[in-house]
Amino acid sequence: MKQKRLIMMLAVLAAAGAAMAQGNGQAGITEATQLVTGYFDPGTKLVYAVGAIIGLIGGVKVYQKFSSGDPDTSKTASSWFGACIFLIVAATILRSFFL
Quick one: 98 and 81 in the same domain? Predict the structure, then answer.
């Protein structure tokens, strides 16, 4: 008998909580949009910085391979600098697409 009462009370509380939580959510969506768009400028700058660091590391790796006479220097150069260019272009496109 006590279990039935407990289950009934929990069901009533859950239904009341769900009824009070009803709303269109427009304010929450607007606030979330403003927060996300606020992070795009620092995020874009961070991706640019990571791209610059990757470019520097790639330059050092390519120089080391070139100095040692390794035959696949062009493959290494294209992969490192391709990654750097991809980061910069991806950050720019995402920023222009979402803002």
Answer: yes
Query: Which residues in 50-87 are b (16+ Cβ under 10 Å) and which e?
Result: ebeebbeebeeebeebeeeeeeebeebbeebeeebeeb
Is the four-CA dihedral 44, 49, 50, 55 of positive or negative sign? Answer: positive
Q: Give me the domain span that covers residue 91.
A: 39-99
User: Which of 47, 40, 53 has its CA nearest to residue 88?
Assistant: 47
pTM of the predicted protein model: 0.60
| CA dist., res. 91 & res. 31, Å (int) | 23
Chain length of the chain: 99
pLDDT in tens, the chain (99 residues): 677 777 777 777 777 666 555 566 677 788 888 888 888 888 888 888 888 888 888 889 899 998 998 888 888 888 888 888 888 888 888 878 776
